[in-house]
């Protein structure tokens, strides 16, 4: 009984050893450095192993905790060390201006054709006609609530300001999201609001906020344990909570919500531009996008790959909150000028300090 | 009677210090990924940890960075301490002032100062910046530990060796160094521990992609985590305490 | 001022009994020395008087009152510790004035009395120094001044001179005696140094293993030790084992030697084992044995001069015998030269 | 040989060959301290005057103007940081003092060294692990809240996590063992007979503490103050992870200036402000201590070997 198993193991081992030598892997021994959020798809086993099998290259991750920090990492030495990054398209133009990015060559991406056309129409992806960002996934930052505390789904952002929810709100620690949400709440143009009004709205909101969440874990923990009952949260992650059976609901309020797109960019002076293209091609492949979205614990947003989106199981479709009617009420985030960014950052910092 | 109250207080404080640590270890065996109850025993997170290459790689990275820094800090610190105790005169006090000042500056502020200076020079983040920054934080501890020992020792032994015909280098290597070996070891260990633990410096000075263990833990805690970090923390904290107790037990056995 | 009294006290640390039935009486204004080897219980006795320890049995009395329940801070005793126990963070004036401060004395009074006391101990003008800037002898004086300035009911001294050099120690013994007289304070000194005990105390108590061995004036105790232990502990002694041969005549037989005529204590039984004790300085050098008493002859084994006196020993059938002579007499002696030592019955103690 | 370098009249001397090895002993440490501490910290002052981003802008002093323009925010955060730092230090002293005393006077030496080791060991691993352990402990629905809820003392969803109290608790927890060490070392140095002497002179329990024990442990207390207050007031992680909406500290904002706002000059200006205020406060404490107990803060051994009292 034992001998055949040992033998089988030996054969399998030999096959494994032989495989890399036999297969013609184009990037054998190279390393790709990815700049991303922690736990945002690209560092799953699926992503790493799939890429290694295809290219022979290993992947290294550098983590950031927000778009501002992402750019900061590139500014302070990341260029030349990091190959690809995953900014929100609102940052792309400015990053091009700062000389942080190099154009993506769509001809090197076999899966480019599968991306839903509407995502490729976003202006922020292009500079001087050249493509810089490749759409990957998309989602919204909507109202997420505890269904036990709110048997009737709330339909307006007003609920965050409601005095009844003092100390029960989790609010996202992101300047641009904060400003856009306050603007929507105030009925203003989310892309060009009256900042004084926004400031006082956020200061008022601060009274209700229990925590400014910085990670999906912060939010998950807070809402599952009941420490908070309502907040603004990403669609995909909220979908995962719902799928896991937690008493959580997710809506796009009547005022609308911020919509976002995650796009891959290639950093200027990337150690290997070809490898970077190979990576992006893998990331937007139907196989990866479907695999990620179908993993019930991964908290994946909606795939930008139309083929993958069409193949989604119902369960996965529910999790990623990729419903057409949602999209209509979304205000897709737009680029900010450096001045705006500084102002937004200072504004949120001041509100958060409570002083 | 009052002695009982005093001792009770000590045990109470000890218990409180260990409360979070024990809670963490307990929760590392809890199935809920959000650390909630009811408690359901599982080894799942330890299994996940065993497969988590990132955490192990970060642990190794932290270990060798700390080892390298500790070795350098021990050497440079011992040299400075010897200089202070034997030749320093007025300079010793100035040197001591510098060492103590270096210890007094909060790590966050020092990290930012070094980062900005490194950017200004054009070096920026990098292994060299990280190494030198860690070294300058750890070295004063090693130097002060050795200097204290040398001060307690006095120059007699070294002078005696000199009077018996040993040259200054041989006198140091054969007589003084063995006498301060334990202090040097303590200094090196202290430097190791401080480097291992110095998150602010790692956070601002490490080159991108060079995530030390504290940085990995930070990124887990800040940007969403998997409970295998509970398992790793439990192993490190539990392991450190076990190691400490083992060392003490060994010393006791040897001592009596 | 008051008399101090330990009345049949017993004391234990855990299961170890350190004092058995110890009594001590120090009349008002007297200087009493308690002497014994380390572990004899002398420090425990002092701690009982001071109030740092409680007796298991018996009473501690100060001025006739039982103070068993009184904590040390309310006993009004001045204590000088072996290591002086000066407060390192206070200057000398602060140290000396501390007890007055604790008693709520006014600033001016503290300054005046502190100054007076520093003058008394010979440290006038050093009030602003710190303890670590003084020599050992000076620190000792500060400790004394600090204990005396509160005008204590009594002064307790715990090995106060043991940390000092020999020369300063002798000087300080005289000083201590002078200051105690001038202050007129009852004092108890605890020491393992017999010389110190003999020169300081009006009376002397010898302790061993937690029991009182002998009590009396120094001269008395030294010259008439009550036991082999006391004889050996207080100064040097040549001890010879013997057996009573003719009690009526006072004859005692020593090993391998002639019987010796002595004044035996009344009631000594025939055949009883006794020990003869002869202090080295009691020997007379004699050309040959004459008169009653004990004579021992033999070659000089060694000699050395210590100052005004010289010490030596001769080899005898009874073993080496120590003697002390005044320095001038040393001139006639040389190692190896045979001499005879003679002691009259008055010089011989029978134990 | 060793004593050959007696200073002589202050004539500029050429270094004799024999002195080179000596200088080589101190050169690496000195170079390191100057290049990596003195120069960068001094340069913060210069960087703070530039206009960002980066450290190559023109000298404008803009960031100081911004900070002065918003005294409520920057001053308020600074005060909060100092208050949290001082609060944690005070709590550390209150808890550590009796602990150190009990260890020194009421615990057998063997047990004592074991307890001291057990106290310090977890704190030598990684601050982040401890913060994280505290997070797990006090998280809503976590062990502590569940236990309190079971006792009917609180609701399990309530927690002090994400409040200033959590930050204060964490800072106290983080630095307590170091304060115990500092005070223990100081208390060990008080000879028991010194306290007996004070007693015999009429000092009651409180008076002995006030006049003997407190001043004699003052140097240890000052050491403790430096090793607790300085890092506590300059911390940012504790507030970042446990502080939530209300726990923001000055250090958190400094770190954000670098990692988020890309405003290095403001980070420099804030860092130098914090450093100056901390050093100033430490100086004031030292002065107050010297006022209250002039003899206690002397350097020991004016007659002895001289000390680098640590």
Secondary structure blueprint with pairings:
The complex is a heterotetramer of chains A (355), B (256), C (351) and D (310).
Chain A: H1 2-22, E1 31-36, H2 45-55, E2 58-63, H3 67-78, E3 84-85, H4 92-97, E4 101-102, H5 117-120, E5 126-127, E6 130-131, E7 134-146, H6 158-161, E8 169-172, H7 175-186, H8 195-206, E9 209-213, H9 216-224, E10 230-234, H10 235-243, E11 248-251, E12 257-267, H11 273-283, H12 286-294, E13 302-303, H13 306-311, H14 314-320, H15 324-328, E14 330-332, H16 338-353
Parallel strand pairs in A: 1-2, 1-3, 8-9, 8-10, 12-14
Antiparallel strand pairs in A: 3-12, 4-12, 5-6, 7-10, 7-11, 7-12, 7-13
Helix pairs in contact in A: 2-11, 7-8, 7-16, 8-16, 10-14
Chain C: E1 4-13, E2 16-26, E3 31-35, H1 42-50, E4 57-62, E5 65-66, E6 77-80, H2 92-102, H3 107-120, H4 136-148, E7 154-158, H5 166-183, E8 186-191, H6 194-200, E9 203-208, E10 211-216, H7 218-223, H8 228-233, E11 238-246, E12 251-254, E13 260-261, E14 273-278, E15 284-286, E16 294-305, E17 309-316, E18 319-326, E19 338-343, E20 349-350
Parallel strand pairs in C: 3-8, 3-9, 6-7, 7-8
Antiparallel strand pairs in C: 1-2, 1-4, 4-5, 9-10, 11-12, 11-14, 12-13, 14-20, 15-19, 16-17, 16-19, 17-18
Chain D: H1 19-47, H2 62-69, H3 71-106, H4 109-125, H5 127-138, H6 143-150, H7 164-188, H8 192-200, H9 205-233, H10 237-243, H11 250-259, H12 264-292
Helix pairs in contact in D: 1-12, 3-7, 3-9, 4-7, 5-10, 7-9, 7-10, 8-9, 9-12, 11-12
């Amino acid at each position: 009984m034992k001998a055949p198993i040992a033998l089988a193991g030996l054969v399998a081992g030999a096959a494994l050893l032989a495989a890399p030598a036999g297969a013609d892997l184009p990037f054998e021994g190279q390393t790709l450095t990815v700049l991303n959020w922690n736990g945002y798809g690209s560092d799953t086993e699926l992503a790493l192993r799939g890429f290694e099998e295809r290219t022979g290259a290993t992947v290294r991750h550098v983590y950031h905790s927000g778009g501002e920090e992402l750019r900061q990492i590139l500014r302070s030495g990341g260029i030349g060390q990091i190959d690809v990054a995953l900014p929100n398209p609102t940052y792309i133009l400015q990053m091009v201006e700062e000389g942080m990015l190099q154009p993506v060559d769509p001809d090197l991406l076999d899966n480019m054709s599968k991306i839903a056309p509407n995502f490729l129409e976003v202006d922020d992806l292009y500079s001087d006609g050249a493509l810089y960002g490749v759409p990957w996934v998309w989602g919204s930052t909507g109202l997420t609530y505890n269904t036990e505390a709110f048997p009737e789904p709330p339909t307006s952002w007003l609920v965050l300001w409601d005095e009844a929810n003092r100390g029960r709100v989790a609010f996202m620690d992101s300047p641009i999201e904060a400003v856009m949400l306050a603007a929507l709440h105030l009925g203003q143009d989310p892309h060009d609001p009256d900042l004084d009004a926004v400031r006082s709205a956020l200061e008022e909101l601060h009274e209700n906020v229990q925590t400014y969440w910085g990670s999906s874990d912060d939010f998950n923990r807070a809402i599952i344990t009941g420490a908070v009952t309502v907040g603004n949260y990403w669609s995909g992650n909220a979908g995962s909570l719902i799928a896991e059976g937690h008493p959580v609901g997710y809506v796009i309020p009547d005022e609308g919500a911020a919509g976002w797109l995650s796009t891959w960019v290639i950093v200027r002076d990337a150690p290997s531009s070809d490898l970077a293209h190979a990576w992006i091609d893998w990331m937007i492949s139907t196989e990866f996008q479907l695999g990620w979205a179908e993993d019930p614990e991964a908290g994946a947003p909606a795939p930008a790959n139309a083929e993958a989106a069409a193949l989604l199981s119902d369960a996965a479709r529910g999790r990623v909150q990729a419903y057409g009617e949602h999209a209509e009420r979304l205000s897709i985030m737009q680029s900010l000028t450096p001045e705006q960014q500084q102002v937004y950052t200072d504004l949120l910092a001041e509100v958060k300090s409570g002083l | 009677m009052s002695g009982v109250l005093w001792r009770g207080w000590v045990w109470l404080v000890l218990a409180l210090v260990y409360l979070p640590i024990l809670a963490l270890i307990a929760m590392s065996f809890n199935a809920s990924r959000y650390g909630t109850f009811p408690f359901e025993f599982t080894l799942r997170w330890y299994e996940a940890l065993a497969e988590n290459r990132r955490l192990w790689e970060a642990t190794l990275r932290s270990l060798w960075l700390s080892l390298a820094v500790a070795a350098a800090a021990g050497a440079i610190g011992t040299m400075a301490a010897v200089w202070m105790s034997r030749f320093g005169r007025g300079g010793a006090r100035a040197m001591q002032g510098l060492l103590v000042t270096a210890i007094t500056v909060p790590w966050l502020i020092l990290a930012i100062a070094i980062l900005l200076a490194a950017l200004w020079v054009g070096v920026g983040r990098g292994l060299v910046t990280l190494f030198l920054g860690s070294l300058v934080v750890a070295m004063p501890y090693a130097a002060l530990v050795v200097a204290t020992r040398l001060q307690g020792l006095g120059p007699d032994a070294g002078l005696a060796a000199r009077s018996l015909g040993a040259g200054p280098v041989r006198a140091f290597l054969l007589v003084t160094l063995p006498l301060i070996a334990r202090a040097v070891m303590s200094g090196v260990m202290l430097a190791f521990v401080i480097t291992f633990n110095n998150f602010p410096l790692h956070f601002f000075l490490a080159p991108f992609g060079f995530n030390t263990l504290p940085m990995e833990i930070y990124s887990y805690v800040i940007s969403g985590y998997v409970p295998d970090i509970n398992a790793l923390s439990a192993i490190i904290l539990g392991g450190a305490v076990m190691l400490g107790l083992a060392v003490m037990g060994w010393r006791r056995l040897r001592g009596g | 001022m008051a008399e101090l009294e330990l009345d049949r006290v017993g004391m234990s640390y855990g299961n170890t009994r350190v004092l058995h039935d110890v009594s001590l009486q120090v009349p008002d204004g007297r200087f009493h020395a308690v002497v014994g080897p380390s572990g004899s219980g002398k420090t425990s006795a002092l701690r009982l008087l001071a109030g740092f320890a409680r007796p298991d049995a018996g009473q501690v009395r100060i001025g006739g009152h039982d103070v068993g329940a009184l904590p040390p801070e309310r006993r009004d005793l001045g204590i000088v510790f072996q290591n002086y126990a000066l407060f390192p963070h206070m200057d000398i004036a602060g140290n000396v004035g501390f007890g007055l401060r604790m008693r709520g004395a006014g600033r001016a009074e503290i300054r005046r009395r502190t100054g007076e006391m520093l003058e008394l101990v010979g440290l006038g003008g050093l009030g602003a120094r710190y303890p670590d800037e003084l020599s050992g002898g000076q620190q000792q004086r500060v400790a004394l001044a600090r204990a005396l300035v509160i005008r204590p009911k009594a002064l307790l001294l715990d090995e106060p001179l043991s940390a000092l050099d020999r020369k300063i120690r002798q000087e300080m013994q005289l000083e201590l005696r002078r200051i105690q007289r001038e202050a007129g304070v009852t004092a108890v000194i605890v020491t393992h140094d017999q010389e110190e005990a003999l020169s300081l105390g009006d009376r002397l108590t010898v302790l061993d293993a937690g029991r009182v061995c002998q009590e009396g004036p120094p001269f008395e105790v030294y010259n008439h030790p009550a036991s082999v232990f006391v004889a050996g502990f207080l100064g040097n002694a040549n001890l010879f084992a013997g057996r009573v041969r003719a009690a009526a005549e006072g004859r005692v037989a020593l090993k391998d030697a002639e019987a010796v005529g002595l004044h035996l204590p009344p009631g000594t039984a025939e055949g009883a084992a006794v020990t003869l004790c002869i202090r080295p300085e009691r020997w007379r050098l004699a050309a040959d044995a004459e008169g009653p008493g004990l004579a021992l002859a033999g070659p000089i084994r060694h000699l050395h001069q210590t100052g005004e006196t010289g010490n030596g020993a001769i080899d005898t059938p009874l073993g080496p015998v120590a003697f002390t002579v005044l320095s001038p007499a040393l001139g006639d002696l040389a190692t190896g030269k045979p001499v005879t030592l003679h002691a009259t019955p008055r010089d011989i103690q029978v134990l | 040989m060793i004593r050959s370098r007696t200073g002589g009249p202050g004539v500029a001397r050429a270094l004799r060959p024999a002195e080179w090895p000596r200088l080589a002993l101190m050169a690496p440490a000195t170079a390191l301290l100057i290049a990596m501490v003195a120069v960068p910290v001094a340069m913060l002052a210069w960087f703070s005057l530039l206009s960002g981003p980066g450290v190559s802008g023109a000298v404008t002093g803009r960031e100081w103007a911004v900070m002065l323009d918003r005294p409520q925010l920057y001053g308020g955060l600074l005060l909060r940081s100092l208050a949290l730092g001082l609060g944690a230090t005070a709590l550390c002293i209150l808890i550590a003092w009796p602990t150190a005393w009990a260890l020194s006077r009421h615990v057998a030496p063997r047990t004592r060294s074991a307890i001291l080791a057990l106290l310090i060991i977890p704190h030598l691993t990684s601050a982040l692990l401890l913060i994280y352990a505290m997070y797990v402990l006090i998280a809503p629905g976590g062990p502590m809240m569940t236990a309190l809820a079971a006792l009917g003392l609180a609701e399990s969803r309530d927690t002090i996590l994400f409040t200033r109290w959590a930050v204060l608790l964490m800072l106290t927890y983080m630095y307590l063992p170091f304060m115990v060490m500092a005070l223990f070392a100081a208390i060990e140095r008080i000879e028991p007979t010194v306290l007996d002497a004070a007693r015999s002179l009429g000092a009651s329990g409180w008076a002995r503490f006030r006049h003997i024990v407190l001043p004699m442990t003052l140097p240890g207390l000052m050491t403790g103050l430096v090793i607790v207050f300085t890092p506590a007031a300059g911390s940012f992680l504790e507030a970042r992870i446990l502080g939530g909406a209300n726990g923001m500290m000055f250090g958190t904002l400094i770190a954000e200036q670098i990692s988020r706002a890309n405003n290095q000059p403001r980070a420099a200006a804030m860092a130098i402000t914090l450093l100056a205020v901390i050093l100033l406060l430490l100086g004031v404490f030292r002065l107050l201590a010297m006022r209250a107990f002039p003899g206690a803060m002397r350097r020991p051994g004016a007659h002895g070997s001289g000390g680098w009292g640590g």
